[in-house]
Design goal:
0% strand; mainly alpha; 88 residues
Length: 88
Amino acid sequence: QRLRTDEVGQDELDRAVQYTLGSHAISQQSGAVVLGEMLDDWLFGSGLEEPGAFEALVRAVTARDILRYGEAHLDPGRRAEGVVRGAA
């Protein structure tokens, strides 16, 4: 609910950006991941220039962007539930 009504703080946003960039950098150590991303960019994206733009795109996200996303897509009246059970 808070993502629909309150902007995230700058510290929280900075941590999220650093976490996202760090996780992405670690994933790039796998050739299979890099190849998969290149293939996705080529087939579904705007071209092979996208991988180099990742950091700039992540750093460009603002607290207001997150709030607008929350308002548009996080409807408290809609939810999905699932049940996971182990094998007996």
